[in-house]
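FORM 7B: Structural annotation worksheet

SECTION A. Query
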Amino acid sequence: MPTKDKMGKVLIVAGSAESLMHYQAQLTQYRTETALTAETAMDSIDDFEPDVLVIDEKLPSISGVELAQWIRSDQAAPHYYGILIVASSRSKNLAELVQQSGADTACSAESLKTDLAARVALLIKYKFLSDKANSLLNKLNQSKETIRELEDQDSITRLYNLPYMNARLEKEFRHAERFATPLTLMIMAIDNFKEVSHIKGPTFCIKMIQQLGNDLIHLTRADDVVGRSWGGEFMLILPETKDEGAQNLKSRISHYVSEHLYGLEHDRIAVELSFGTSTYQSEEGKLQTIQEMLLSAEDDLTRQLQSKSERTSKKAVNA
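SECTION B. Predicted structure
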C-alpha cells in the first residue's frame, strides 16, 4: 500500500528487535516508526506525531509505564490520544496497569499475536471521535462566549448596555474602596436628542449614536469602560481617575465632537454634548455608595442641561 494511502501513524516502542518486527508485520496498513527505548521514542514523537503508540511495559532504562505517564502529562502533546500498553508476562492486572500508566487500554503480549491491528483501529477511531468531540466543544464554548458578549452589548452601538454598566460600576467601586483608588463616573448626553429624533427620524439618530460611540472608544483609555444607557445618553466608568482627569477627558471629547458632523452620508449635523460627573475618593469621605455616585452624576448632568436651557431662553427673549 502506498504511504500516502495508509490509514494512520503508529509509533511502536518495544525492548527487542524481534517484538518490533512482530508488531510491524501486523500493522502494514499503517505508517509505522519504531523505537527500542523510551528515550528514542520521546525524540520521535514530536517529529512523527503518531495517532497511536504501542508501548511494551518492559523497556530498558525508563519503563513503558513511565513513558506513557510522561506522554499523558505533557501539555504540549494533548493530541496523542491512543496509547496501548503491552503487559509483560509478570503483569496480572491489566486494569491496574492502565490506571498506573495513563494508557487508554492494555493487553498481554499473547493476545497481540492475532488482534493488534484491530486494537489499533479502535484506538484510531477513538482518537478521531475524540478530536471531533473536542472541536465541537470548542465551537460550543465559542458560541456561549459570543452569546454572553451579545447579552452585555447595546444592540445599536455594540457598546456595553446599561445592565452591564451597572454591574461593572459596582465591581469597580468595590475595587476603588479596597485599594483606596479614585473612580469617576461620567454620564454624557446629546443635547436636544428628542427634538433631533422627531425631526430627522430613527435611522438618522441610530447612525449618529453609532458614530459617537465609535468616537468614545477611540478617545478613552483601554481601561475605561464605555456604554450606552438609553436614547442619546452614554455612560463612562473611569477607573483610577480623579475629577481633574475626568474634566480633561470631557474637554477632549467636547473639542473632538465640535470639529465633526454626525448623521447620514448626505445629511450631517453638528452635535453638542452635556456631561455629568461624580468622583469617588476614599480620603475625601464623600460618595460612599454606588447610588450616591449615580445620583451625583445625574444631578450634575441635570444642572448642565438646565443651565443651557436657561441661556437659550434668555437669548430668545433678547432677540
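SECTION C. Observations
The CA atoms of residues 34 and 257 lie 70 Å apart. The mean pLDDT is 86.

SECTION D. Sign-off
Analyst initials: ____
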